[in-house]
Amino acid sequence: MKQSFNIRFKYPFKEKNISIELTGDVTPHNSTPYFIVSNIRFANHPEGPYDAFPEIKLQQRELHGEKVWVHMDTQKESELSHIVGQAIEDHLSRSASS
Q: What is the Cα–Cα distance from 84 to 81, expressed in whole angstroms?
């Protein structure tokens, strides 16, 4: 697989009707394949001292005939895995077309 890359995505807080823009470093792994997303930080403060979320490991799987992004540890989809997975897909499709 290709080298590491950076993604940007918006994480919504539906109760408050707002979202925050985040950035993260994605490292692809060949073995399964899966992606490690680390250094998830606020996009407007990427050099800040704290990560907004801990590192996550995601994998795209087929479930009921549909492709979904799941967490490697639970094999379950979440709003975070869906949003980050979509950002990974968007990056990979842009890279493939350039």
A: 5
Q: Report the distance separating Cα 50 and Cα 64, nearest Å.
A: 38
DSSP symbol at 53? B
Domain spans, the chain: 5-97
* Reported pTM: 0.89
Q: Decide the pairing of beta strands 18-29 and 66-71.
A: unpaired
pLDDT tens-digit readout, 45-69 = 867 778 889 999 999 999 889 999 9
- In angstroms, what CA-CA distances link 87 with 12, 25, 81? 14, 11, 10
Q: How many CA atoms lie within 13 A of 25 on its CB side?
A: 10
What is the Cα–Cα distance from 13 to 66, expressed in whole angstroms? 26
